[in-house]
Amino acid sequence: MLKAYHFSVQDVRGLPTAFVASYGTGRPNIALLAEYDALEGLGHACGHHLISGMSLLAALGIASLVKPLNGTLTVVGCPAEETIGAKAMLVRKGVFRNVDAALMIHPADKTEIIKLSLSLERLFVVYRGVSSHASANPWNGRNALAGMMALFQAIDANRITLPDGNRINGVIKHGGNAANIIPDTARAEFFIRANDLTAHAALVKRFLAAVRGSAAAFRLGHTVRRLGNVYYPLVPNTGLARLFERQLTGLGVHIDSFLTDKELGSSDIGNVSHVVPVIHPALAVTGPGYPAHSEAFKIEANKPEAYARMRTGATALALTVLELYKNKVLLSTIKKEFHEKYD
Predict the structure, then answer these.
(1) What band does 68 get if pLDDT is binned at 50, 70 and 90?
(2) pTM for the structure as a whole
(3) What angle do CA 299, 39, 164 make, to 5 degrees?
(4) I want to staple 100 with a disulfide (CB 3.0 to 4.6 A). Which of 28, 211, 230, 284 is the partner?
């Protein structure tokens, strides 16, 4: 579709399902992020089909109306937000090196212009012990599952002393093969989140200490492996957010809040926000009470009303991008706000 509208499309080495498409030449270079992914066992319960739909529609609308474009419009195909965090890899590969601002919209059950996000690191822990008969000679075993349960208890006991915004959530992926065998292997996956990268590093250090302590208590070997990339917290850009808010309200969309630090998750858009000005607003595509990552949201996000709201979001994105091309002073102010945080 992008090629049909005269975009130049290139693959990204090392990421076979990512792409970079460009229309026009020169600066400013504004990027629309077409994020696509789904949830294992649930499918489109996080609205990724609408995310990529909004960015694609906005890009095609601009390309069909503005010829030639006074600058460059870039569409970045962003896979695997729910798993490895491919945007972190795209940042490292320099995809955003010459980008002046990056925009995308996330579907939700309420509209929030700036929705902060937490860091995220996925760690996979394996405990290794010794199997033996659970009744005849259990004393010959080293119980990997017991060690893993102790790790969960240690984490739960620590929760009361964790700083606000710090989160550790885990699930046991394997705990043994039979009830009459002392488990020699236990595996679990943990999500570690924090408000900022300094707190994140401290929380990981604390978690690893608990892993070592529980392993030592049960005489277990252990390994810890990171899954995917570390997601950075979102750095908001107020100027860009206000510009988008004006376009959205001009289309008659009710804004539930301008900035919220409630009900936070994590996204690899945070990594992009550390290198260029970014917006990642939430746009209500359902009524209230349909949280993402639920079967109910998946059903609502596939209704005609959700696709109509997708078109509204695409229009707001396109109007925001066009204003950035037209108003160089505003774009300069937005970039100045970004650089004041990092220079």
Answers:
(1) confident
(2) 0.93
(3) 100
(4) 28
